[in-house]
Amino acid sequence: MKIELDSEFSTSNKIISYSNDSFKLKDTLVETNLVISKDRLIKNWLVDSYQNLATQHLDQIISWQPELIIIGIGNAPSFPNPELTAHAASKNIGLEIMDTGAACRSYNLLVDEGRDVVACLFLSDN
Known about the structure:
By secondary structure, the protein is α/β, with parallel strands linked by helices. It is 24% helix and 25% strand. The strands form two sheets. It has a five-stranded mixed sheet. A three-stranded antiparallel sheet has the order 1-2-3.
C-alpha cells in the first residue's frame, strides 16, 4: 500500500509504501524487519518475529528515549505481551501493538506531528 508523504523535502525517515515482503523508504527498499525513528534506522533487526520479541530487545530502543513505541506484528492476530507493555511503562514509554499496515500509517502520522516515536515493524508471514 502506498502512503502519501507530507513533503518530498522532509528529512525524517518516513515509510512511503509497504507490502507483505518489503518497506519502501525515501531512498531505500528494505526487505527485512526493521526499526525506524525519524532519524534512525535498523535494517535486518535480529528479532525475526513478534512472538520472539523480549524485553532485552526493547532496551536498545528504549535507550533512544522515545515517548511511544509502535510494534507492527504483520497481519496475523496476536495478543499484546504484558511483559513488554509493563517494561516500557516502567520507563514511562507508551507501547502500542497493531498490524504492520496500521503501524506504518500511525508512525508516519506521529512523525508528522513532531512526536518522538519508534516503530518496530515485522513483515507479514503471508
